[in-house]
Design goal:
The chain is globular and about 60 Å long. It folds into three domains: 198 residues, Aldehyde ferredoxin oxidoreductase, N-terminal domain (Aldehyde Ferredoxin Oxidoreductase,  A, domain 1), CATH 3.60.9; 192 residues, Aldehyde Ferredoxin Oxidoreductase Protein, subunit A, domain 2, CATH 1.10.569.10; 161 residues, Orthogonal Bundle (Aldehyde Ferredoxin Oxidoreductase Protein, subunit A, domain 3). With 634 residues, it is α+β, with helices and mostly antiparallel strands. The strands form four sheets. A six-stranded mixed sheet has the order 2-1-6-3-4-5. It has a six-stranded mixed sheet with strand order 8-7-12-9-10-11. 61% of the residues are buried. Helix content is 41%, strand content 12%. The chain is built from 27 helices and 17 strands. A hairpin with a 6-residue loop joins strand 4 and strand 5.
Length: 634
Amino acid sequence: MLGNITGYIGKIIRVNLSSDDIKIEDLDLDFARDYIGGSGFGIKYIYDEVPPEIDALSEQNKLCFFTGPLVGTPSPSTGRYMVAAKSPLTNIFGEACSGGFWGPELKFSGFDGVIIEGIAEAPKYLWIHDGEVELKNASSLWGIDTFETEAKIQKELGDNKIRTASIGPAGEKQVKMAAVINDLGRAAGRTGMGAVMGSKKLKAIACRGTNKVEIADKDLLKKANKSLYSKMNMSPMVNILKSYGTATFLDAFWVLGDIPFKNWGASVHDWADEKGIEPFILTNRLAGSSLRDKYKKRLYACYGCSIACGCEIEVDEGPYKGIKGHAPEYETLAMLGTNCLNDNLESICKANDICNRYGLDTISVGGTISFAMDLYEKGIITKEDTGGLDLTWGNAEAIVKLTELIAKKEGFGKVLAEGTRKAAEEIGKNSSDYAIQVKGLEVPAHDPRAFVSMGVQYATSNRGACHVNGLPSSVSQGMILPVLGISYKTSRFVNKGKGIIDKKIQEVHAIFNSIIVCQFAALVYGSTDTCRLLKATAGPKFDYDFKDLIYKCGGRINTLKRLYNIRCGISAKDDVLPKKLLEPLKTGSTANVVPDIETQLQEYFKENKWDAKGYPTVERLKELGLEKEAKFIQ
């Protein structure tokens, strides 16, 4: 341990796979105060050390795993870690976050983070245990799935409590939407971080430790946690998640028009009319109650979480009998289900299992398959292109098969493994009109026609279309933050003011993604709670004023991401929504609604102090302590 450090461990591992060199670096506490951890650490290291012009799958890219000051502490729902690199899917800053137990175990092993450089000559895995770090031969693990990888590493090292973050065959083959998987199905899914890991021939990082995270003020932490647990116990959202997990959102969101159908081209009413049944019956086939009533084996909680929104299932009937593992979450059920007009729950469980084992992002996979089905219906692609696959809407067997082909980078799956943006470029014939992505990242399962504020969020999020780097729709659902000037609920269809709200909410999320805390718990964290937790955990140096924490630290983190993306070639011309999301649906609760993206962007740019090109002004950079970065935008 470094001196009297609290909250943090104080050490970061740097591994050069090209030379097998391992170094241990001390964590600078002034740096930690400015960038917090997690997402903040990730962008600072990538910005400083990864040239924007490099190929994301080249030796020059760096893959960073970071925890945060609350990870591994008694604070609720902080069992997370963040992975960052230049993204091979978007060619800009990439990051992904995951829950489970791996993040806390890394801290218990004696480290706040790991930086991976270079490319190994042969497959390796990293073994971290109680302050010791070793590179080990992973040749026998190359080619096997993430479940087998964890089991084999535990057996080889003689400890079934070892936690691993690993890639499957999709990462090894550098599928652009490959994920990093931990705890047999928790995924750092978005932006292709698994492909970067595969390019470096790093199969896994295994952790085991007996250290504890030292707390600066245990009494203050107890008081803060007591307040938070009380709020969580009273929260309707938390209690719904305890009962049915995120899959329950299918029961609620269809009414709001928030769920995508038919590659974002239809409403639930269109699909229900076609099938001759009521919409709630149709969505309930995939929702949390049906999933858990049929296949639940046990509930699952990440480290230190009282919500336990996860569920482990076993499918015991039908063609997909024998599937065991994490149940599909809302995003998976929507993207591989409703967006493909697929109401076969067992097939979604199977596709989800393939993604977990092979290491794939279910959001991008589902978005890519629905894109292909749209092209198939339009006649842009045929069975000759798909290798004989019948990609008619709702073909459950074809969805499962295509998921596998993407994972293996075989047949038509090899084209789709590049993501919708690249696949559209290869296919041509105006197929880009059906690629529902922003800056190369497929849109998650929340429709900006249901909450128009999600329009500016998707258009401006620093990793491409994203709902966890900012969720301004929460304000239209009743969340308020008076300390930031968000003091009243706003109509979900009103555009005015949404650009201002989104800027503030993005900065709030930048902090929670740096601490790192689960988004569901973050919904009940208040300004006082957050500041008390940081001070109690990390000490007086981390005694923030909430406005400064959000406006300066959150703003600094988000602005540095934007600056990196500017250096990668991004500007205001790229802050756009896909064509289909600006076309109104004809039925449902969002009929004839589209976001006024221009109004929202003008507000957002002004609130951020950006110029017309989408570049931060020198004035704003000086406010954030980023004066040296002004040279990159002039």
